[in-house]
Write a structure and sequence with these properties.
Blueprint: H1 12-24, H2 40-45, H3 51-68, H4 74-83, H5 90-102, E1 119-120, E2 144-146, E3 151-157, H6 162-177, E4 182-187, H7 194-198, H8 201-214, E5 220-222, E6 230-235, H9 248-255, E7 272-278, H10 293-306, H11 328-332, E8 337-343, E9 356-362, H12 374-383, E10 388-389
Parallel strand pairs: 3-7, 7-8, 9-10
Antiparallel strand pairs: 1-2, 2-3, 4-6, 5-6, 8-9
Length: 396
């Protein structure tokens, strides 16, 4: 029976733990060490206005409970559910829950190719990953492993666009300052997180406005609230017009090396899949979903797979902490494919896996290809109805 929200009288954290305990058993999720800062998932589950999301989330956890009920990864699943309480990694943990649910459709009715559930955080010896070339100890743990297919995967949230948030923030500052001569250009490090900005929007706006009002036509300002966030100011006479056009190909060029930043999770000797989850609340504060779309997904994947095939550029030019001699291409060919999952559970009335849209891009020159595999063609494409782009005639 689907439970409904009848009365909200507890904190988001307590409400979340109660929901999980009712499905998985008491004590599945421990009390968070920090319960002063909630997140969009906990707030929605504690809101009378988010009944559809509550229903879908409850159904998703119910499916995962039945999948893992008599299997050892259940404890690790509980750990993932506990991480959703955290203020910083809730989005990553939620993404993994979405992927684990979607990828195991049909397991319960035995209509799929899965004879056992996905293994969660399966350890891989360092020698089987690229992490042997950095100063770290211990095994690596990709997010999941399909025992039936011998395929590893790692889950990430969709690449966010801090430039969107900062563009809107700069326009807000300009309007409030009220001088049409002012142009504002934010500058920031490539690894700046959106959440770091979103949590401090008001503080950033106020500090920049105060600086502008206290100084005569300044050229530069450095934020005291977000490390390495800077603003350049230009003052030009006449009416200023600002415009921003989203170009999926330009964005793919800017972001295509992101999958290689967490190189320690990439497995050398098995097929390895990257999974990106897109969810509107990952961009909370910007008032929009990522809106990246299939054009970006395709360009992003193709650049990573093919752009460096004739290049001898060393991976150490991307990450100075890497001491190996491998090229970027030697890294990229270890990625067998990239899957994008768009989670529509906020508004979709379907309480099953159909509230996720998927598309898979396969690497045509992967060292461990999946293009003609049973995993890709029979399981993902035929059983899960996932469209596949294999670049068979676009590999140049």
């Amino acid at each position: 029976m689907i439970m409904t929200i009848d009365h909200i009288s507890v904190s988001p954290f307590e409400n979340y733990r109660t929901l999980v305990d009712q499905i998985f058993g008491k004590g599945t999720v421990s009390q968070s060490s920090s319960e002063t800062q909630s997140n969009p998932i906990l707030d929605a589950l504690n809101s009378l206005q988010q009944q559809v999301f509550w229903d879908n989330f409850h159904s998703r956890l119910g499916r995962l409970d039945r999948i893992y009920r008599n299997h050892s990864p259940r404890q690790k699943l509980g750990q993932k559910l506990g991480e959703i309480q955290q203020p910083n990694n809730w989005d990553g943990a939620y993404s993994e829950i979405v992927a684990l649910d979607f990828l195991q459709q049909g397991f319960l009715d035995k209509s799929s190719y899965l004879s056992e559930p996905i293994l969660i955080d399966k350890e891989v010896p360092r020698a089987q990953t690229f992490s042997e070339n950095v100063a770290t100890d211990g095994c690596r743990t990709p997010d999941g492993f399909f025992p039936d297919f011998g395929v590893y995967f790692d889950v990430k949230r969709i690449p966010t666009r801090p430039q969107i948030i900062l563009r809107d923030l700069a326009e807000r500052i300009r309007r409030q300052f009220g001088d049409t001569r002012l142009f504002i250009s934010p500058e920031y490090p490539i690894d700046l997180g959106c959440l770091e900005i979103q949590l401090r929007v008001c503080s950033i706006v106020n500090e920049v406005l105060e600086f502008l009002r206290q100084n005569n036509m300044p050229k530069y300002f450095r934020s005291e609230h977000v490390a390495d966030l800077e603003f350049r100011f230009r003052w030009e006479s006449g009416v200023s017009v600002t415009a921003s056009i989203y170009d999926p190909y330009r964005l793919a060029e800017e972001l295509h090396l992101l999958p290689l930043q967490k190189f320690g999770q990439i497995v050398r000797d098995y097929p390895f899949l990257l999974i990106y989850v897109d969810f509107p609340w990952f961009n909370i504060g910007s008032g929009m979903t990522s809106g990246l779309g299939d054009e970006f997904y395709r360009a992003f994947s193709r650049r990573l797979f093919i752009q460096y095939r004739l290049s001898d550029t060393k991976y150490s030019t991307v990450d100075e902490n890497f001491s190996g001699s491998e090229t970027i291409f030697e890294f990229s060919k270890k990625i067998s494919g990239i899957m994008f999952l768009e989670d529509k559970s906020i508004l979709c009335p379907e309480r099953d896996c159909r509230n996720v849209r998927a598309i898979l891009f396969l690497n045509p020159i992967a060292e461990h290809p999946l293009i003609n595999s049973i995993f890709a063609r029979e399981y993902l494409q035929s059983t899960l109805l996932t469209p596949i782009v294999d670049f068979e005639y676009d590999n140049y």
